[in-house]
Design a protein that fits this description.
Helix content: 25-40%
Structural class: alpha/beta
CATH class of the largest domain: Alpha Beta
Number of domains: 2
Largest sheet: 7 strands, mixed
């Protein structure tokens, strides 16, 4: 049986759904096919441990998305369709090996008071950095929500800014270069690195300079923004918009072949043999490493295949989900604090060693750097009454010396080690407080979602060779693939991973233009 639509979308992650929502709003008949039983990709919320405990499978905060025109301008009326955000305050609480800590609050004065415990100079520097970033953030935000290579470029945008030359240099530096030069106290430097590596990029890599500002500034402005009901509330709202405009979403439909006729992509075929044809275009969010296997090599061309062959995964995460009877409780001056977001930052030397561990396939268990998320303290709708869920994350390599399969032998021990580290600062989280656990190594993340190639939840590394006009492959960064009629979106396209919605919006913008349509016209219909 073959069915035909204007647009067929392969994959139902949040970027695919955003692209489909814009296209459906434009009056195009859209079909979205999802391989798994549930839509959302890495913005999924599921009962991973026990019934009634709604865990975020991957993403938890949507702080960057809140600055997108999709949400801030309600280009897609997500609030009308049930999406609601909670701005958690305190924003985060980060502890250090000597027992000290910095708590970040949405009130910048309170945050600076925390930093002043270590250095008044550093507090002043932090305040100035946040102010400096506010002056250019709209420029970088526009670049994020503009297809790669479209004018105006970042160089042209900054040329008109009085500090443009300064920001061009800052962008080219590493986050560590900027942090090390700007701050004097090691606690503050370590705290800033902990934030800078929030997008799982190494802080010492040239070209990450903006991360010394953007991640921490986004939290300072929007808090640890969490969607009420879980990360899966975003794809659910998008699903409602798509259906309201005549679109269809089918689950349990893994795509394994592109249908080519006369050199053009005319549709897709699923593993069960079903065929779905597209009058205008196929939009893919399939990872490029898998996408190239779905059509003959000659259809892609040598340059594209080389780009995919050399595409790298980058850093990967190790995640443990817990159903608990109470949240982690951190001792602070004046009492106890249980925030949505907490962290163990460790020393500067330990944090800067993570890259070396990745490069050599080492599973380092000494002083693990942690991100600890407990959204149930602000959103009790996710758990049974009086209960909580805790997610403990740290960075570990997919490619171990013994091979990635080694993770099946060691993941329980690594999770226990991370939990023991957390208990040094939140000793209340004893074994009797933990009702159930779900441990996922980088290998498990790949098994769970085929888009997490080699365990990368961000679509692949964000190195200079895989960013902007070079993502996913040089010459094909504007969402049009070498095969006519095939477009790519998702984290393997500009601006990459994290919940931004930008790849989905940008792909829709390009496709609409190719169809002679204008995004602004669609937004206001």
């Amino acid at each position: 049986m073959t069915e035909q639509y204007d647009i067929v979308v392969a994959g139902a992650g949040h970027n695919s759904l955003i692209a489909a929502a814009y296209l459906a709003k434009a009056g195009l008949s859209c079909l979205v096919l999802e391989a798994r039983p549930v839509i959302g990709g890495n913005t999924m919320t599921e009962e991973l441990t026990l019934p009634g405990f709604l865990h975020d499978t991957c993403s938890t905060t949507h702080a960057i998305f809140m600055q997108s025109p999709i949400w801030s301008n309600q280009e897609l009326p997500l609030a009308e369709y049930g999406l609601e955000y909670i701005k958690a305050d305190p924003v985060s609480h980060v502890v250090f090996p000597d027992g000290t800590y910095i708590t970040q609050w949405m009130d910048i004065d309170r945050t600076c008071e925390e930093i002043s415990k270590f250095s008044r100079k550093d507090a002043s520097t932090y305040r100035r950095m946040m102010s400096d970033w506010r002056g250019v953030a709209p420029i970088f935000n526009r670049i994020r929500y503009t297809p790669a290579g479209w004018d105006p470029s970042i160089v042209e945008e900054l040329a008109a800014h009085p500090q443009g030359a300064i920001w061009l240099r800052r962008q080219a530096l590493s986050a560590w270069d900027i942090i090390d030069a700007a701050f004097e106290d090691w606690h503050v430097k370590s705290w800033m690195i902990w934030f800078a590596e929030g997008t799982v990029q190494p802080a010492e890599r040239p070209g990450t300079g903006l991360l010394a500002y953007s991640f921490v500034a986004g939290r300072q402005r929007n808090g640890w923004a969490i969607p009420k009901g879980g990360s899966g509330s975003l794809p659910k709202a998008l699903h409602r918009i798509i259906e309201a405009h005549g679109g269809t979403i089918l689950t349990n439909r893994p795509v394994n072949r592109l249908i080519l006729e006369g050199g053009r992509c005319m549709g897709v075929e699923t593993e069960s043999g079903e065929q779905f044809r597209a009058r205008h275009a196929v939009v893919s969010t399939i990872h490029v490493k898998h996408l190239v296997q779905m059509a003959p090599a000659a259809a892609w061309g040598e340059a594209f295949l080389y780009g995919v062959e050399t595409y790298q995964a980058g850093r990967t995460m190790f995640v443990a989900h817990y159903a608990t009877t109470e949240p982690p409780a951190f001792t602070v001056d004046g009492g106890i604090l249980s925030p949505v977001a907490a962290g163990v930052a460790q020393t500067l030397e330990r944090q800067l060693r993570v890259t070396n561990d990745f490069n050599h396939g080492n599973v380092a268990t000494d002083q693990p750097v942690l991100l600890v998320l407990t959204p149930s303290v602000e959103d009790p709708s996710r758990v049974p009454a009086g209960k909580h869920m805790v997610k403990v994350i740290n960075l570990q390599p997919y490619s171990l010396r013994e091979g990635p399969e080694k993770w099946d032998e060691i993941k329980e021990a690594v999770a226990a080690n991370n939990l023991a580290q957390l208990r040094q600062y939140a000793p209340n989280l004893t074994s009797d407080k933990i009702l159930a656990a779900e441990i996922r190594s980088p290998l498990d993340l790949e098994r769970y979602n085929r888009h997490n190639w080699h365990g990368s939840c961000h679509g692949g590394d964000m190195s200079p060779s895989q960013s902007e006009t070079l993502r996913p492959v040089p010459g094909y960064a504007q969402h049009r693939m070498p095969i006519p009629g095939l477009y790519q979106t998702g984290a393997t396209t500009h601006p990459g991973g994290s919940v931004t919605g930008a790849p989905g919006r940008n792909a829709a913008l390009v496709l609409l233009k190719d169809l002679g349509r204008d995004l602004n016209e669609v937004i206001h219909t």
